[in-house]
Design goal:
This protein is an alpha/beta fold. The protein has helices spanning about 30-50, 80-100, 115-120, 150-165, 175-180, 190-205, 205-220, 225-240, 245-255, and strands at about 5-10, 15-20, 50-55, 60-65, 105, 110, 125-130, 130-135, 170, 185. The protein has two domains: about 5-205, 2-enoyl-CoA Hydratase, Chain A, domain 1 (Alpha-Beta Complex), CATH 3.90.226.10; about 205-255, Lyase 2-enoyl-coa Hydratase, Chain  A, domain 2 (Orthogonal Bundle), CATH 1.10.12. The strands form two sheets. The protein has a six-stranded mixed beta sheet, with helices on both faces. A four-stranded mixed beta sheet has the order 4-6-8-9. The longest helix is centred in the middle third of the chain and has 20 residues, at about 150-165.
Amino acid sequence: MPYEAIRVDIDASSRVATITLNRPDKLNSFTRAMHEELAAAIGEVEASGARALVLTGAGRGFCAGQDLADLDFTPGAMTDLGELIDKHFNPLIRRLQALPLPVIAAVNGTAAGAGANLAFACDIVLAARSASFIQAFVKIGLVPDSGGTWFLPQRVGMARAMGLAMTGDKLGAEKAESWGLIWQAVDDAELANAAAKLAAQLAQQPTRAIAAIKQALRAGTSQTLDQQLDLERDLQRELGASYDYAEGVQAFVEKRAPRFEGR
């Protein structure tokens, strides 16, 4: 389908898909129409058989969160933010987390509000050194959404999460890396290449195992050790019957590179 607010590229040879938020004049901020396009694009990526996804932004920003111009501020008819979140933002975050393929955020500039938390919802975050992350919600009297109140304490601890959320201060990419909030900060000119290289590498990995890794690591944040041990057992049993496991073992025995197929 034709898109206006995003771009989609699917490389058949590498099996890497790239979705670019494409409202650069608005720092790629979200409108309801953009949400609809992004949902359709993720469906297109899933249907294509792509084995890795890169999410990035056009222009000088990654995503500035919700476009306030898309909301109604008429007294008595103001946009219900809970409904907006329930219909658009929460399904997007849940879908990214559940995708059975690795999702890389390539943060090329400002990631503010829901835009920051959109990046954190991806599996691996690369950021240009000039990029920054801002929990801007408090500046307009709101609470971090799109998973922000969950991602931040999980990754940086309660003290830093409180500071980021309550002040709305800008956090640079290098400090975000040192705090463990993102995977890696890279030189601005190298971001696209670094993301493409990582995506191509992950696309060659056993996709079912990567999906199971995502499931297990995220489940571990809310389960007991006994529950997690049982989940590991169940996932390992399932993967132990897969083509990729047999291929991986055979490649090890034959001292060659494995040729995983994601099945």
